[in-house]
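Give me the fold.
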Amino acid sequence: MNLREKPFYLTDGQVRWVEETLSSLTAKQKVGQLFCVMGQDFGADELRTLVKDYNIGGILFRPAPAKEIRAWYEPLDEAARIPLLKAANLEEGGTGGLSDGTFFGWPMTVAATDDLGVMEKFAKVCALEGQSVGLNWTFSPVCDLDLNYRNPITNVRTCGSDFERVKSFCSQYVRTLQEQGMAACAKHYPGDGVDFRDQHLHPTYNSLSAKDWYESYGAIYQQLIEDGLMSVMVGHIVQPNVEMDINPELRFEDCLPGSLSKELLTGVLREKFGFNGVITTDATIMSGFTQAMPRREAIPTAIMAGCDMLVFTTGFYEDYQYMLDALESGFLTEERLNEAVTRTLALKAKVGKVPTGRQLPEAKQWQAECADKCVTLVKNNQDVLPLTPEKYSLIRLVTLGKDAITEGCEAAPDDARYPIESSMTAIAEELLREAGFETERFDIEKEELHGTKDLPKNRLTLYLANCEHASNQTAVRLFWAKKHALDVPRHVEEEPYIFVSFSNPYHLQDVPRVKTYINAYSCHRPMIEAVIGKLLGKSAFKGVSPVDAFCGLPDARL
């Protein structure tokens, strides 16, 4: 491999450091470089031992205040013989790495602006806020296509379902982020969003034909590789048609998840697409990995198939020994081990020295700009907008899902505090009262079955939904009260309702007859302010839906 060319473009001095470092490592030390562990899974002393004595390659800490993350990494940097890859999931802004960073918005929030300039600003926020605590590697962008609205995990984490939009927005993210000196890791190759199930729970399938895959998911990865993408994260997702295209001797039942598939990793990524960067597994604690084959076999198989690093372990010392056993037996070859470690060292040579202390005072302004541009009026089949106290003096608020939202602190980096919890409903209520409306909150305990002749003529019901995507759940749907489902928008032909979703673009499948429906994609204060402002006519709706918000259901358009 030529480390002076794409994607590393190392100098002669950097190449020399990689070669000298590799030659100085024992086999055990090389094996340690294959692992990226979850920091919070270990105590401080044990983690220092893993860095110093086992030579692990990388660490990811789940988001915590900036001051804490810096304090965690400081002794590890002192103990490390080789610089660490310091990872985070910077998918939604700085909060993917530090809890007091900026929650800019989920990728679909940015895509709904239809403005690549907003994606550029988003990527800068991710890079600079991450680097402020020493991070140098992000498991993003999510470049999956959200082709199946029933999928509980892709959803607003993606830039949508349109291939060209996803490609252009992810390309902008990678180029901008890496220009700032942070390594991007595109995921989840070979591509999530076709299956309606979650790869955290078992292997899932990208069932597109080989031709359709190469023209969609494959083309996205080819573009990112052309852009200089430094690393790829491989999901526990089977793509049988591509695997059998590469290896005609395979049968469907022989096809493995991408994280274990030599056909997808070596055959496609390396040989067809010419990718020379780091390939890492998605978390090997996920059942999509653990159910594919016995772990003793799976851990070395991932490296032999073409992965260079293993993310997270169910038991580090056990997995570490599996690698040593595979090396001793000859199943893991020295050649493949050296290739994997060389690429990992090359990535460290490229991004190991992180510029710290960089500030981005524009982050909050850019967050508000994105919110203003993304809010999408999906459906408007009644004459209620703009809202005025003269039309509807009383706004009844119905909250669905999570009401508490997390807002990053305004504290300086050296005075990091935990984020403040706020209420979505309280913020909306505050803004509506300031505009002259009376408000009341729906109370299921007080609500009873009733007819419609006495419905208040001055009342409009505003639904605020915050039903977030999450791993390890099988669906993201609206679930109604057991008490006669009295929180359903029941009388759509006799009283006005507006439904706003702050975190899922597909709620029309459950409220198809609501006549005014809005998608906002992320839930933070600037987004709530943008939504209420647009309801009041203070600014126009500008968002362009990145997906079919009607879920292909004709009745949802009524």
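Residues 113 and 410 are 26 Å apart (CA to CA).
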